[in-house]
């Protein structure tokens, strides 16, 4: 039978998003060639803040139909100083997450070889940090409900309404328990703020304990308030494995996780439609980094790790070994001081790291 060709919608976006997306494509193609059992075919979309400044729009009116022709979306980063960030977010990235039914955001964090974590415990025992953060990606604090009244006066009043639905909470809890169950430690920590937020967060807790009944004796679980959670992440990283939290809480906690792991430039994220009715989207968690854009020094490792997660997802269990080899190739490169970028204490550029990963893939995969 002909080998599967995965159709990838590539959205490089702005700033270093452009550099790291082309690096990811180069590495993915090297992987496909080395493996031989599958291939990738890309459509590149020029949706960016730069384009928005020129033409007044990010995406074509039929963007949904265009994206749905693909098996996955690979996304660089969007955002540029001349465009307010809420415009780039709400005209592109949030509509994609919502309309492509990507209600789960998964952020794995561990300490890759060659990174220098800032906390002493993790410098001595890097394996103490090995987490999957499962973020609710469709509602909560980023649901977009609210409004502004008397905006141009001293009486300006703005509301930002968080939305929590039974259906939305139940499906994220179920995904989180399944994720925890599939990992060796079978442990789930649920994050909340149900002492101060007594409606939505109380429902969040209630649904968590309901779903937990189905995993009694299979997955060990506990509950944390979000403020105390930041302390536990720093002081007792080894005490956690899988973590589930709301859209806002998990957004913040995953940046903390990336910093604890040594660099924002290495962290990946997957926006998943677990029903697989729409393409899922894979992106490094960093932004467009205007301060280093165009300098050729962006760390492409977060982009590569995101690409490895895309391979894992596309393979539906068949490509896990390939994704693991891909990760091994990445770590062989980060483990070598000669092939680390500046943010990891080295002096190699994006291109040199990319080429080193390609050579490692040809050797390992
Ligand atoms: P950022 O992640 O772009 O940069 C934060 C700091 O980390 C900067 O000093 C940057 O140079 C450094 N950095 C980030 N990625 C790096 C990499 N791969 N290698 C080396 N250094 C790296 O976050 P910032 O500055 O808050 O946002 C810049 C723009 O990006 C904004 O317009 C923001 O809205 C957007 N953004 C977009 C995201 C997305 O597309 N998903 C996510 C986060 C921010
Ligand atoms: Mg964020």
Automatic annotation (TrEMBL):
Keywords: Magnesium, Manganese, Metal-binding, NAD, Oxidoreductase
A GO molecular-function annotation: magnesium ion binding
Catalytic activity: (R)-malate + NAD(+) = pyruvate + CO2 + NADH
Cofactor: Mn(2+); Mg(2+)
A Pfam family that the UniProt record links to this protein: Iso_dh
Keyword Magnesium included in the entry's annotation: yes
Keyword hit for Zinc: no
PROSITE patterns in the record: IDH_IMDH (PS00470)
Family: Belongs to the isocitrate and isopropylmalate dehydrogenases family.
Name this protein carries in UniProt: D-malate dehydrogenase (decarboxylating)
